[in-house]
Amino acid sequence: ALYNSKTTSRGRTTVYSAEHEARIRSERAIENALQNADLAKEFEIYFQPVISLPEREVVGFEALARWDSPVLNRVPPDRFIPIAERTGMIHRLTVHLFERAVEQINGLPGSLSLSFNLSAHDVTSAETVAALLDIIRLKKIDPRRIMFEITETSVIGSYEAAETCLKTLRAAGVKLALDDFGTGYSSLGYLHRLPIDCVKIDRSFVSGIADPVAIGVVNSIVNLCRSMQILCVVEGVEKPDQLEVLEALQCHLVQGFLFGRPQPYETVAASALEAGTV
Ligand code: C2E
Ligand code: CA
Ligand code: CA
Ligand code: CA
Questions:
Q1: Residues in domain EAL (predicted)?
Q2: Exposure b/e, 237-246, CB count within 10 A at least 16 = b
Q3: Closest by CA position to 44, among listed 268, 202, 255, 203
């Protein structure tokens, strides 16, 4: 047994350092590719529908960044966003993506909203916030159609700066959503400290929704939002039985593969026009 555990532990050490090295190499590769990226050519925005219940109508879209690098092919946002933050490129990237998202959503019926993810660096940068508000003015979009999504982790650490930025955004008429709700340390604490219009319940609660505890949690958050007059979106709805549970809990807004995967603008535009929502 002793001999075995020795080899195992040595084996693991080797595997670990090789993995670690590979990870560093891939981070460097992403960093380089990102630094040299042609944002207009390599990046695209995919739109995922947000659905209202009980009508089951599309009320808006969440913009999700897609990067198709000529060197690295598809790199998921969970990988490149942290690197863009670390290298300081996030400012340029956010502003670029937001401008395109607004241009595209402007081509859709005016009742449809745009949800756009902001990173920690965005919500603590007065410069980024000013640039986002400039775009709203220049592109002449009704700010009430826009919802910026932030996570709790993005305000931890620089709470004061974030609070100032969020208040500036909200004063301009845009809405704010607390994303990945329920996954952080003190989501409830931020709910009344920050000027929040909407909560997005993390999809981990929905995947376990056969479990009475998960149902109870979702039910509590939905009721809490209702009593605070905050909107509530349940994310990650994939199956009809999950939808049934959420309908019984009287959830008003849902999102997930059941209703639509994130898709390119052309696809959502075609179906929005076809649906006759114009
Ligand atoms: P998020 O904001 O929580 O976005 C939801 C993620 O869940 C998206 O992954 C979406 O494709 C995925 N999703 C939606 N419905 C379902 C479902 O029913 N089942 C499952 N399994 N997944 C579903 P994606 O597009 O890979 O984005 C990952 C994260 O990257 C986002 O999480 C967001 O935090 C970040 N991100 C994406 N685009 C941007 C961006 O433009 N700016 C910033 N700062 N972050 C972004
Ligand atoms: Ca989001
Ligand atoms: Ca989320
Ligand atoms: Ca997330």
A1: 23-276
A2: beeeebbebb
A3: 268
Residue identifier of the C-alpha nearest atom 42 of ligand 1: 117
Identify the band that residue 276 occupies on the pLDDT scale cut at 50, 70 and 90.
Answer: low
**pTM for the full predicted model:** 0.92
β-pair partners for 231:
198
Q: Which residues surround ligand 4, an ion (CB under 5 A)?
A: 180
Cα 94 from Cα 66, distance rounded (Å): 12
Residue with tokens 């340390």: 185
What's the sign of the alpha-carbon dihedral 203, 152, 199, 134? negative
Check if the beta carbon of residue 21 is closer than 8 Å to that of residue 241.
no
ipTM: 0.98
Going from the Cα of 180 to the center of ligand 3, the distance in angstroms, rounded, reads 4
Q: Which residue has the tokens 């996954």?
A: 183
Main-chain phi, psi angles of 254, to 5 degrees: -140, 160
Contact 119, 155 (CB under 8 A): no
Q: Are 256 and 222 in contact (CB under 8 A)?
A: no
Find all residues with CB under 8 Å of 245, minimum gap 6, and list them. 209, 215
pLDDT digit string, tens, across residues 53-106:
999 999 999 999 999 999 999 999 999 999 999 999 999 999 999 999 999 999
129 C-alpha to ligand 2 centroid (Å): 18
Rounded to an integer, what is the distance from CA 136 to the centroid of its chain? Answer: 19
Neighbours of 24 (CB within 10 A): 10
Relative to the CA of 64, which ligand 1 atom is closest?
Answer: 38
Q: Quick check: 65 and 39 in contact, CB under 8 A?
A: no
